[in-house]
């Protein structure tokens, strides 16, 4: 198994925000983190990325415990793709993607031709080669996400962590991004992403980790976890899960809050 979390605990100050989380994902998996605001998704990401120390439990990537890895070694295994990123300088997209190679050379070295070739290959993987010479600051939100994914590929990481990647995108760019994520999984990468929409894991994810107050409500396949009972337990409101078919016959799940009817006792 590529990614394994066993009874992971951690937080800030003297309190644990993440309380005994266990889950696992392999190559080709899309693991969706789902839950209300403040449930611990971002803290769990920080524990995964090593920016926050573990207070308990273990995280293994490709069989190696992350707590025993140097920052450079960890960067070769896991990459973070932020929701928002605006550089101070007006770099080209190619420059931004080449930055993903930083873990492969010292701070005093300049990128070599092999690094630029890796950047071009990464852009090609996300169908964004045409953006190579564009200014990164002039890109749309969706195009920036593609560039950041290419940077993560260029980093040679095996696990990609994405924090609500669709939050700032319009509907068309969101669909494009989800197609890129699915394509990355098909190529053998493991993608871990957080979302506020239960439809995403139900439609595109292969595994779901549903959280509430730092604890696991459920972990497993979307069909097993995205249920009215689990969603009500996590969000505190009644919800229905409806399966529909699009014009081509593909099944999709839609999660709907239930509108409760006001009833007045008859006199």
Structure description:
The protein is an alpha/beta fold. The chain has 2 domains: 1-77 and 158-222, P-loop containing nucleotide triphosphate hydrolases (Rossmann fold, 3-Layer(aba) Sandwich); 86-156, no CATH class. It is 30% helix and 28% strand. Helix 4 crosses helix 5 and helix 5 runs parallel beside helix 6 (171-186). It is globular.
CATH architecture of the largest domain: 3-Layer(aba) Sandwich
Number of domains: 2
Counted beta strands: 12
Poorly predicted sequence stretches spanning 5 or more consecutive residues: none
Order of helices and strands: EEEHEEHEHHHEHEHEEHHEE
**Major sheet: order of its strands?**
6-7-8-3-9-10
Strand coverage percent: 25-35%
Structural class: alpha/beta
Main beta-sheet strand count, sense and barrel state: 6 strands, mixed
Q: For the record, what CATH class of the largest domain applies?
A: Alpha Beta
Give the rounded overall mean pLDDT. Answer: 89
The coarse silhouette is globular
**Through-space gap between termini:** 63 Å
Q: What oligomeric state best describes the polypeptide chains here?
A: single chain
Radius of gyration: 20 Å
Might you state the CATH topology name of the largest domain? Rossmann fold
Helical residues, percent? 25-40%
Given the structure, what is the number of helices?
9
CATH superfamily of the largest domain: P-loop containing nucleotide triphosphate hydrolases
